Amino acid sequence: MINVVTKEQIESLFSGSEVEVMTLWDKTTVMSVKLPNGFVIVESSSCVDPTNYDEKIGYEICLQRVFNKLWELEGYKLQSELKGGEH
C-alpha cells in the first residue's frame, strides 16, 4: 500500500463530486460538495461590504478550503488504513 495522498487523488475525488455554489445576501459565497461516497463538505467565504463582493474570488477561496479539507480527510483515511483500521 502506498503511504502518500497525491494531488491527482484529490483532484479525481473532487472531479467525481457534485458541487453547488450560491451567493447569499450579496456578499457570501457558499460551496457545497457531495463526495462520491455521499459525505458532504460545506465551505463559505464572505466580505464585510457587499460592494467589495466578487463571486469569482469567493469561489476560489471556497475551492481552496474544500481541497484542504479533502487533503485532511484523505490523510486521515490513509493513516487509518496503514495502522490496520485503528482509530
Q: List the total number of helices.
A: 2
Distance between the termini: 18 Å
* Overall average pLDDT: 94
What is the H/E string?
HEEEH
Largest sheet: 3 strands, antiparallel
Number of self-contained structural domains: 1
Instruction: Tell me the Rg in angstroms.
Output: 16 Å
Oligomer: single chain
Amount of helix: 40-55%
| Helix-strand makeup class | alpha+beta
Contiguous low-pLDDT stretches (5 residues minimum) are none
Could you describe the 3D structure shown?
The chain is α+β, with helices and mostly antiparallel strands. The chain has one domain. The protein is built from two helices and three strands. A three-stranded antiparallel β-sheet has the order 1-2-3, with helices on one face. The protein is elongated, with a radius of gyration of 16 Å. It starts with 6 loop residues before the first helix and ends in a 5-residue tail after the last helix. The mean pLDDT is 94.
Please write out the topology.
Elements: H1 7-15, E1 18-24, E2 28-34, E3 40-46, H2 55-82
Antiparallel strand pairs: 1-2, 2-3
Provide a concise account of the structure shown.
Helix content is 43%, strand content 24%. By secondary structure, it is an alpha+beta fold.
Jot down its keywords.
87 residues
